[in-house]
User: Fold 3-methyl-2-oxobutanoate hydroxymethyltransferase from Nocardioides agariphilus.
Amino acid sequence: RGRIRTHHLREMKERGERFSMLTAYEQYAAQTFDEAGIEVLLVGDSASNNVYGNETSLPVTVDELLPLTRAVSRSVKRALVVGDLPFGSYQRSPEQAYDTAVRFMKEGGAHCVKLEGGREMTPQIELLTRGGVPVMAHIGFTPQSEHALGGYRVQGRGDTASRILDDAHAIQDAGAFAVVMEMVPGDVAGQVTKELTIPTIGIGAGPDCDAQVLVWQDAFGLRSGKMAKFVKQYADVRAVLLDAARTYAAEVKDGTFPGPEHTF
Ligand code: KIV
Ligand code: NA
Assistant:
């Protein structure tokens, strides 16, 4: 089993074979998900919340994401590693986007990059694609535009569905190899998936996408607190860590640890 390439994802779509994507921000999660057969690992700008302790994805910087991207790309044997371009690092111009993307590939070892936006991002997508940077687009609810969009809300309801379809076609025509659709009604996402030849990757976009993505700390229960409706919890990693940490602390306190077997 060799590396997953962007063309493999398109071939999977042609065969009607779904694939999965998860976030990863460091070595052990990346190795584990790679071994589990997750085809695509995203070093998301959601590291802003999940690594750096911010409340939104807006504050995270290129310089903060690059070391995480390098850690993940060094740790996988098979998965396609996507570097997520953070807010402010690509919107100003195609040239700005290209310079940022090159850093993610050269310094971060990313195999491709993701950026948020539809029609308005086609100049960026065209220049990156021409310059050897495969681009994954991201439409629907785009968290970097939270304040412009007026909060976390489903995009493409009712008569705004055609905007999502137009954006999807525009980014495909510009050369994107895949598109994430976030918080889009299931029927709209299904229609986009049917009309596009590139794979669609849903998060809160229903069952008819070609692939799915989740933030692993949400899906596997490292993060506690309120979850979006689209998150399914597959594990309770936080409970495992909490129990282990409490047991360790108790054993140190009462002198059970270290035992003779841990002592030189
Ligand atoms: O940063 C991120 O985690 C993402 C996914 C939710 C698609 O962009
Ligand atoms: Na992101």
Observations:
- Residues 44-46, 57, 84 surround sodium ion (ligand 2) (CB under 6 Å).
- Residues 81 and 252 are 40 Å apart (CA to CA).
- The radius of gyration is 20 Å.
- The chain has two domains: 6-233, 236-264.
